[in-house]
C-alpha cells in the first residue's frame, strides 16, 4: 500500500503544478487579448519635401479669362 500512496502523492503534486501552469497560461492569454483590443497608434505621416511641390502649386495658378467685348 505504501507504493500506491506514493504514486497518489506524486500525482497530486503533478496536478498542483499543472494547475499553476494553467493559471499562468490564462493570465498570458488575458494580457494578449487586452493588448490586441487596444487600437494601434497610427504611425506619424512621413514629411514630404516642400520644395518642388509647393513651387509647382504656386506657379500652377488659374489663368486669367480673356475679356471678350461685344
Architecture overview:
- The protein has a domain at 1-39.
- The chain is 64% helix and 0% strand.
- The protein is built from two helices and no strands.
- The protein has helices at 2-37, 51-59.
- The radius of gyration is 36 Å and the shape is rod-shaped.
Features:
70 residues, 64% helix, single chain, rod-shaped
Which helices and strands occur, and which strands form pairs?
Blueprint: H1 2-37, H2 51-59
**How much β-strand is present in the residues?**
under 5%
For the report, how would you describe the main beta sheet? none
The helix/strand class is mainly alpha
Rg over C-alpha atoms, rounded to the nearest angstrom: 36 Å
Low-confidence stretches: none
> Number of helix segments?
2
How does the overall form come out from the CA principal axes?
rod-shaped
Number of strands: 0
- Give the distance, in angstroms, between the N- and C-terminal Cα atoms: 122 Å
| Overall pLDDT confidence | 81
Helix fraction? Answer: 55-70%
Q: What is the chain-wise order of helices and strands?
A: HH
The gist of it:
By secondary structure, this protein is mostly helical. It is built from 2 helices and no strands.
Amino acid at each position: 500500500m505504501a507504493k500506491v500512496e506514493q504514486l497518489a502523492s506524486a500525482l497530486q503534486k503533478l496536478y498542483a503544478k499543472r494547475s499553476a501552469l494553467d493559471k499562468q497560461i490564462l493570465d498570458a492569454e488575458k494580457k494578449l487579448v487586452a493588448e490586441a483590443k487596444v487600437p494601434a497608434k497610427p504611425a506619424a505621416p512621413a514629411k514630404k519635401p516642400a520644395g518642388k511641390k509647393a513651387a509647382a502649386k504656386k506657379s500652377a495658378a488659374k489663368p486669367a479669362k480673356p475679356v471678350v467685348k461685344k
